[in-house]
């Protein structure tokens, strides 16, 4: 009986009960329908070059680090890799340091693809505009999608295509639960995002397409991003997380595609 009382009214239970009721109250203050944005299509390299010319970073460090974190999750069995939405090729550059890998980096924007090929090309990387529906069943061992899915309207069709083309997927997206206000925003603050998910939503969307889904995050994202900015050879720390995490970035490693 004492154990049951401690479980129901101990410190952890009391804190959780208070947080739950405060959260319920605060959510009512922001209640309303969630409105997705329209898909905008691939982002042109000109945006990054203009930001760099104005004195800002070519790629925001908190975005760039996600590509390096995804590369850190690669396993020796991942030899034939397709990256969709490859952008300026940062993941392909990091992953292709292992010469045994063969990477097709697909990016639809022609200027961005040309910049990536010129600045981040290696002999084992092919930059292309290849679509998922142009790939054969099981053609690749792994598909990688870094900060892409939140930009796409028909994400279900993309995930079905990924599951058909490769048995495994590494995919990242920002965590809607990363701050007090993004967690209740009725539409994403970033104009390029169609929608955002929290960790639990992301997990169960992916579980509709893959038998096994493991969630990871980048602890202390800002500090790690700063360190990567100072030293691009630095390997970021990636840690497992649960569906309750409030860390900024979500990276899922998926296996066992349903076909």
Describe this structure in words.
The chain is of the alpha/beta class and 259 residues long. The protein has a single domain (61-257), classed as Vaccinia Virus protein VP39 (Rossmann fold, 3-Layer(aba) Sandwich), CATH 3.40.50. The chain is built from nine helices and eight strands. α4 crosses α9. The model has no long low-confidence stretch (mean pLDDT 93).
Topology record:
Elements: H1 2-9, H2 11-29, H3 45-53, H4 61-72, E1 80-84, H5 90-95, E2 102-106, H6 110-119, E3 125-128, E4 140-145, H7 155-165, E5 166-174, H8 199-207, E6 210-217, H9 221-230, E7 239-240, E8 249-257
Parallel strand pairs: 1-2, 1-4, 2-3, 4-5
Antiparallel strand pairs: 5-8, 6-7, 6-8
Helix pairs in contact: 1-2, 4-9
In short:
By secondary structure, this protein is of the alpha/beta class. It contains nine helices and eight strands.
